Amino acid sequence: MIRQLLRRDPEKIEALLDAFRWEEITSDTAAPGYHEKQLYASLLRQITRYERRRRNTRYLLYGAAAAAIIGVVFFTRLFTGSNPVRQPMQAQKEPQAAPPSQMRYYRNISPDVLPIKVTDGSEVRLYPGSEIRFPASFKGRNSRDFWLKGKAQFTVAKNKALPFNVYSKNLVTTALGTVFIVDELPGNTRTRIRLLEGKIKITGGEKTIEKPVHLELTPNREIEINPVSLQIVSESKDRQTDFDRGELFRDDGTTLTFKNMALEKVVQILENNYHLRLQVPADQLTNRFYSGTFKKSDRVYENMIREINYVHKINILISKQ
């Protein structure tokens, strides 16, 4: 047994016995003063202690190496490491100045409307629960672009060279020198746009759609659009005087209702919602209004145009479907 141990790991025995002891040991006898079994047991104890010391030493070396590596990494990151990733700012005030290429991001988590001043002189009033982002500077750009989720009111600084665009879900509202409100209503099934001053243009946000929406809005009008189908769901105009009849269109899903609606607006709604191109002289639409209720169907516009032609003695033609 001892011979096998010596042949397998002779260097371990060398660490346990000095040169004098080795000279006393022959191939046929045990070491002087030791019985063979006692010597074997003693050697096992010595080897066990020797292995334990080597293992503990190895663990200490590994621990020291790991500590050294951690220290190097720590001091490297401390002096040369990159900055931590910043989380989107929950905006309660205007952020500090940023490089021109950087976007400003606001999210209003307060119960109050958040006023935001833009570098071009425009102003944004961001409603609770809404988000907006836009470039910190418009220098070198062809337009002033804002991306909105939720509701905001925009007071636009006049700059004919830089159109002012607000991107909501699948819609773009473009304005020059205008005050208007864009509101993505809960559920993302309707977007409400209200014009207070000036003039705005509303188009589909996706350039690849087959028949994009293209509308213009005049002051004191409000329009709701389905951002998926791009159909007009409702449109109205406020009464400005006691003699003003006001205007209203509503599509409730089953019925189309028009009340004192200007004929040019009726034509615009039919063209947009049913992808039509209607031919009618402009003078036949001026100062003419229409009221009526129809059951909604794919070709309801045919009955409507027939009735409008009869009531107003005009001739609206469908030139393209």
Any key phrases for this structure?
single chain, 321 residues, Jelly Rolls, 10-stranded antiparallel β-sheet, 7-stranded mixed β-sheet, 6 helices, globular
Care to describe what's here?
This protein is α+β, with helices and mostly antiparallel strands and 321 residues long. It has 3 domains: 2-80, no CATH class; 108-229, Jelly Rolls (Sandwich), CATH 2.60.120.1440; 231-321. Helices cover 28% and strands 31% of the residues. The chain is built from 6 helices and 19 strands. α1 packs across α2. The relative contact order is 0.05. Residues 12-34 and 72-98 have low confidence and may be disordered.
Secondary structure elements and pairings:
Blueprint: H1 2-8, H2 10-16, H3 19-24, H4 36-80, E1 103-107, E2 114-117, E3 123-126, E4 131-135, E5 144-149, E6 151-155, E7 164-168, E8 171-175, E9 179-184, E10 191-197, E11 200-204, E12 214-217, E13 221-225, E14 232-237, E15 247-251, E16 255-262, H5 263-273, E17 277-279, E18 289-295, H6 300-312, E19 317-320
Parallel strand pairs: 5-7
Antiparallel strand pairs: 1-4, 2-3, 3-6, 4-5, 6-9, 7-8, 8-11, 9-10, 10-13, 11-12, 13-14, 14-15, 15-16, 16-18, 17-19
Helix pairs in contact: 1-2
